Amino acid sequence: MSFEALVVQDGVQRARVRQLDLADLPRHGGVLVRVDWSSINYKDAMAVTGKGKIIRAPLPFVPGIDMAGTVVQSDHPEFPVGSPVLSTGWGVGERTWGGYSRFQWMSPNWLVPLPEGLTLREAMIVGTAGFTAMLSLQAIEHFGLPIEEGPVLVTGATGGVGSFSILLLAAAGYDVVAVTGKPASEDYLRALGAHRICARSSFEGGARQPLDSSTWAGCVDSVGSRVLEAILSQIKPHGVVAACGLAGGHELSTTVYPFILRGVRLIGIDSNTCPQGPRRQAWKALTELLSTVDLERIARDVTLNEVPEACEQLMRGGIRGRFVVDLRTAG
Ligand SMILES: NC(=O)c1ccc[n+]([C@@H]2O[C@H](COP(=O)([O-])OP(=O)(O)OC[C@H]3O[C@@H](n4cnc5c(N)ncnc54)[C@H](OP(=O)(O)O)[C@@H]3O)[C@@H](O)[C@H]2O)c1
């Protein structure tokens, strides 16, 4: 049986759709998944375009850190044939072949049963981005940020993590302020639940002083670097910042003052290695919180053939929301 996969290989045309057979797939585990939907995350865009060292395995390689589909062969009782499943993270699409293939062998340790109330496509609109936003919200709640404490910033607001962070924080009752480099996206951001929009440029100069005026109760930051540096100097006493990304750069230069004089909490978020218990709990919470939300505002469907161009667009920072990859016609 042959089917389609997006394969990264050496050479000029780095990523292209190829016909594979089941025998071509590395046997990562005992569960064979027929993939219906995947998505495009920042990491995927780096892997497909070659603009970041994401692939940590020999080429040829199939990227795609997210996937949702149906089990067609299984040696594991929790995932019988016919059961709908999803997967994000665990190095899939980085170290082991990922979701840009109609079929993939998966370890049961990487799979989550599709939560009731979510379709396979909806699970991929959410994907790693929405899951990371949920972990960020949970961190903010866990570290005790009261809703009445004041506005919570979301940086990289039009991106995948940013869009979901706005949706989830607003649904949880927080006063959300979106930080964006795309002023023309104001209507989109307000429709997601942002009360106010701030220009990214007002944070890009970094911290003006170690302790600036305390303005924000918290933040979900997917940008890092100078933007995070500026925000840390403006967080109110005992505020919480969830740091989850580096769209603006990986470096961080700050002082200890926000931490020792204001008790600011800087919490790191890693969706990739989130253990199964909290992972399933976060997917359950996501499903409940998103049940009243129109996910179509965020989603844009692409085919496997359209993934390379979509990845180029994403790397240019010019898109908003989430690309969802439709593999249903890929074999
Ligand atoms: N920790 C984790 O587990 C985890 C999980 C998922 C993603 N991430 C990371 O989170 C970040 C965002 O991922 P994503 O999938 O949401 O990506 P995305 O959809 O491409 O969104 C990134 C957003 O960041 C802003 N941006 C782009 N280029 C920028 C630049 N040069 N300087 C400042 N801001 C810039 C843009 O939003 P505006 O134009 O609205 O400002 C853009 O839409 C990435 O660094 C990714 O690796 C981490």
Describe the secondary-structure layout.
Layout: E1 2-8, E2 15-21, E3 31-40, H1 42-49, E4 66-74, E5 84-88, E6 103-106, E7 112-113, H2 120-142, E8 152-154, H3 160-171, E9 176-180, H4 186-192, E10 196-199, E11 216-221, H5 225-233, E12 235-243, H6 257-261, E13 265-268, H7 276-289, E14 299-303, H8 307-315, E15 322-326
Parallel strand pairs: 8-9, 8-11, 9-10, 11-12, 12-13, 14-15
Antiparallel strand pairs: 1-2, 3-4, 3-6, 3-15, 4-5, 5-7
Helix pairs in contact: 1-8, 2-3, 2-7
The CATH topology of the largest domain: Rossmann fold
Largest sheet: 7 strands, mixed
Instruction: Spell the H/E element sequence.
Output: EEEHEEEEHEHEHEEHEHEHEHE
What hetero molecules are in the model? NADP nicotinamide-adenine-dinucleotide phosphate
What is Rg? 20 Å
CATH architecture of the largest domain: 3-Layer(aba) Sandwich
Give me the CATH superfamily of the largest domain: NAD(P)-binding Rossmann-like Domain
Number of domains: 2
Indicate the low-confidence ranges by residue numbers.
none
CATH class of the largest domain: Alpha Beta
Distance between the termini: 9 Å
> If you average the pLDDT, what whole number results?
96
Number of DSSP strands? Answer: 15
The share of residues in extended strands comes to: 25-35%
Q: Can you tell me the overall shape?
A: globular
Helix content: 25-40%
SS field, number of helical segments: 8
